[in-house]
Amino acid sequence: MAMQTIVQTVARTLAEEMARDERVVVLGEDVGKRGGVFLATDGLFDRFGPDRVIDTPLSEAAIIGAAIGMAVHGLRPVAEIQFADYVFPGFDQLASQAAKLRYRSGGAFTAPMVVRMPSGGGVGGGHHHSQSPESHFVHTPGLQVVYPSTPRDVRGLLRSAIRGDDPVVFMEPKRLYRAVKEDLADDDETIPIGLATLRRQGDDVVLISYGATMAETLRAADALAGQGVSADVIDLRSLMPWDEALVLERVARVGRVVIVSEAPRTLSFASEVAATIAEEALDLLEAPPVRVTGFDTPYPYAQDRAYLPGPDRILHAVQRVLDH
Amino acid sequence: MIGNLRRFEPFGAAPVRVIDESGRWVAPFACDLEDDALRALYRDMLRSRRVDERLSTLQRQGRLSFVASAAGHEAVQVGAAHALEAGRDWVFPYYRDLPLALALGWPLVEAVAQQMASRLDPARGRQMPAHAGSAALHMFTVASPIASHVPPAVGSAIAQKLAGRGDVTLCSFGDGATSEGDWHAAMNLAGAQGAPAVFLCQNNGYAISVDFRHQSGSADVAIKAHAYGMPGYKVDGMDPLAAYYLTRQAVQHAREGLGPVLIEALVYRYAAHSNADDDSRYRPADEVAAWRRRDPLPRYRRFLEGRGLWGDAAEADLLAEIKAELDRAVAAAEDAGRAPLGWMFDDVLSAPPLQLRRQREALARTRDLERDAH
Predict the structure, then answer these.
(1) Which of A68, A94, A96, A240 to mutate to test the interface with B (most CBs of B within 10 A)?
(2) Is B350 found in the same domain as B265?
(3) Disulfide engineering: B329 pairs with which of A159, A320, B108, B334, CB 3.0-4.6 Å?
(4) Residues of B in contact with A106 (CB under 8 A)
(5) pTM, full prediction
(6) Taking a C-beta distance cutoff of 8 angstroms, is the pair A113, A202 a contact?
């Protein structure tokens, strides 16, 4: 097997799922002949044709809304939002329709569908090509939310998302699209939505992250290893539902924890993890949980390297919990 | 085939009409409905009016929290329902569509149970009154945000186009919905995709208090269809036969793969927007009275009587039947009790996350989840 990037994995997994199940259809802006502006749907149009790879008008409300209606008919739509920053015209469709359909109909209607969106900063795109809006979706009961960081997790979680029975917001770490490569075995592995994974095992501090900041978090862990500090590193992968059990188990073992997320700090998912740890495991902590996050500003342009939680800010936070 | 059935041309100046105010047939084609079908239109209209009146009474008695009367909208909704194949075609209604839902076959006990959040409500008491839905009838559960159901309706029609069986989707909404971005996004997508959708705008002239002149600079709603590449029609929404024949033509158009259609039905709501509204603040009394004189029920009854299909005895029998049916439905819904507390936690996702299970257990320590939520 050749090494493949995250964005290649998205395209390949979509092709495999479409071949496996004829109910799977892809829709969005530029997903057809263009193969997606990031090439995440590359090759699908030629292979599956315009009935299953649908170039839509430039309207996120139409894309997500149509996906809901198609899902109600038993199709398995995978909608692409070109950048997560552009989901907001379609947010009402996610929040008012998709998220509440099972609930408001007493289970008579469901919307099994996936809304993929390249997310996060670090690509020189300013605030309208860089945001990490996962908290909006996590805070909307009725949606599942995943934010993987490796090709293998992208493949396994995308399979689960497409085959599952719920609307899934599938956030893709676009600055890692071509930065992380993996040699994937040719198998049908799925990764259940809601399970985190351990990327490193260590005894001095637990680092928790997800999505694109996994890269910075792992670099920080490597730097710590060079200083003789061994870090446990958890990749949450899924945010709703999320793997509270693994987090509490590892934090209870070590007693020191730093949570990393590039979203704005207030009401970030890192805050939810910190609050849960405080509520469930306070007696086992050696230091307060510390968050390393984006700032409570719109995502900046000229200063985005300082906005993103880089290894230096993570190391500083680790020092704080070690010194406590 | 549509060529033979096409009776109405789009974008006409006058609304489509089949019977006049006196109940006389004025269309340039002959009636092809059986007597039973003609009577069924009246039965569904009268039944809906009576259900509507009972719901208002129950609301005033404090036995349900909200009512959005559909009185005045019966003709268009019943006419449209009779032009569809219930259970085959799909319907995406809005909150003022009780006559449509009942005419499609929504069981009265389910309808009343939904209003009362009874244990008999298949939607498990999850929504306020006036939010219909039925999987068996392919009737998509109503959501309150105006026009938010129009993009999903287009998705439904696209799925039907892909399936290639000639099924169609009817999506219903009021005049206010045509100002929402979601409405335009959906109409545009339907046109671009040639989706087999029939859009039914019930223009009663007011979005709560805002009249149509303040809603849009367009002369009417039907003209907007032009911009989306679909035919637009206006119909006298107080004429059930006009609504039936025009919807039938639109459904046939969509079934044959000719794309979407927009119908604007000119109607009037006789009550305020809801029990919480005071329409005397924005509607002149003489305007209401003028529309009252155009009530679709006596108008259509005159048509039936002119054909010898209706009379006082039939009316009395039907009213007694409706009353008995309503009494039974209300009693059943109330006797079953209100949705229990524990149902709050179900149907969020296909399986409840750990955190939600814990929240349920925490509440169960202090409250009996099997009991009525009140």
Answers:
(1) A68
(2) no
(3) B108
(4) 121-124, 126, 347
(5) 0.97
(6) no
